[in-house]
Design goal:
Radius of gyration: 22 Å
CATH superfamily of the largest domain: Spore Coat Polysaccharide Biosynthesis Protein SpsA, Chain A
Length: 369
């Protein structure tokens, strides 16, 4: 195990833990690391520790990280002897920390100064919430691209800060990113730890689903992070080697197979999986599941959960905020809700969604500019 700090091993370090652990995984990101660490030190909230986990970088990462370690006692540097792979390196770092709250900040991303103060405050104020996250903005850092320096708008399904049950919406798309999400360690440990199923591309997405099964999320309606887009991202690598496609299929299988979620959410996961595989509209898939052409066994099974299943599907469509809605049309979602209300006029969630979105030309949601 890497030694650090006054020659002491990790086991010999004093057991005085801060409120927050910020874990910064890095590999050959020396040209981004200094700005990332500076954005942490600029936080208005001070009760944190930073662990820089270096996956055997071959650039100047070590020099930069050790500079920060010498400059501020809250910063620690651990270097892997060999490249363990991103997830193994992340798991090692998580095991070396003990704080109540945890943030995984990518070495190429940046925090705004008030992120930790507002995220910690949100979780302190709402003990029922399992994690807190903020709005953020993407910017292009690719000198070889004509879009270098451009900033992209960020979409959120919510138009104000608050506590939200994210499960149904998260099945549609993942608008939450690691770098701007603070979570409770006890909740993470309760669901099996960081990425317990080794989903290399959508592990964070699945983690948010797991957290949502344990309690709501606290959304902070303020842009508190900057997400860097460049050519050498891990996402680009995973898409290129086909692992991303595999992980998306498995993501939905894992949700369907687990009793952490109610059956309507599990059925909705299957509907979304079919949408990814076939490209068919989401409400059409939902109607086929247990529909007239389905096997009698499936019709009987789905009918038990149909109303709640349809509401989850409609919610996904209506609150999917990108301007081009790849899920379906609001009109088709409203038709599902009308069907639910004809069957059960007392369904409060269906009535609320229907009244909120009836007569609108597009889905609601916040566009952060």
């Amino acid at each position: 195990m890497q030694s650090h700090g006054l020659g002491m091993s990790e086991e010999q370090q004093p057991h005085i833990f801060p409120k927050v652990d910020v874990i910064v995984p890095t590999y050959d990101y020396g040209h981004y690391l200094n700005a990332c660490l500076a954005s942490i030190r600029a936080q208005t909230y001070a009760d944190y520790s930073v662990l820089i986990i270096d996956n055997a970088s071959e650039d100047d990462t070590e020099k930069i990280a050790r500079h920060w370690q010498n400059r501020d006692s809250r910063f620690r540097y651990v270097r892997n002897d060999t490249n363990l792979g991103l997830m193994a390196s992340v798991l090692k770092a998580y095991a070396l920390t003990r704080a109540e709250l945890v943030l995984f900040l990518s070495a190429d991303d940046l925090l705004e100064p008030r992120f930790l103060a507002l995220a910690v405050g949100a979780l302190d104020q709402h003990p029922e919430c399992t994690f807190a996250y903020s709005a953020w903005k993407m910017f292009v850092d690719d000198p070889g691209s004509q879009n270098h320096g451009a900033e992209y708008r960020y979409f959120s399904p919510h138009d104000c800060s608050g506590c939200y049950d994210e499960a149904a919406l998260l099945l549609a798309h993942n608008w939450i990113t690691n770098s701007f999400t603070l979570f409770r360690r006890e909740v993470c440990d309760a669901v099996g730890g960081v990425n317990p199923t080794d989903l290399q591309h959508v592990g964070d997405w699945y983690t948010w689903m797991l957290f949502s099964a344990k309690g709501p999320a606290c959304y902070i309606h303020e842009r508190l992070g900057r997400y860097r887009i460049h050519a050498n991202t891990e996402t680009n690598r995973l898409v290129a080697n086909y692992r991303s496609g595999y992980d998306h299929i498995r993501f939905y299988d894992l949700i369907f197979e687990s009793e952490l979620w109610p059956m309507p959410i599990r059925l909705a996961a299957k509907a979304h999986q079919s949408r990814w595989l076939t490209g068919e509209p989401l409400t059409l898939i939902a109607r086929k599941m247990g529909g007239e052409r389905a096997e009698p066994l499936m019709r009987h099974f789905v009918s038990r959960y149909r109303d709640a299943f349809y509401v989850a599907i409609a919610q996904s469509v209506l609150q999917y905020t990108p301007s081009k809605n790849f899920l379906d049309t609001p009109e088709n979602a409203l038709a599902l809700l009308r069907e639910v209300l004809l069957h059960d006029s007392s369904n409060a969630q269906a009535a609320m969604l229907y009244q909120s979105y009836r007569g609108q030309g597009r889905s609601k949601g916040l566009l952060i500019t």
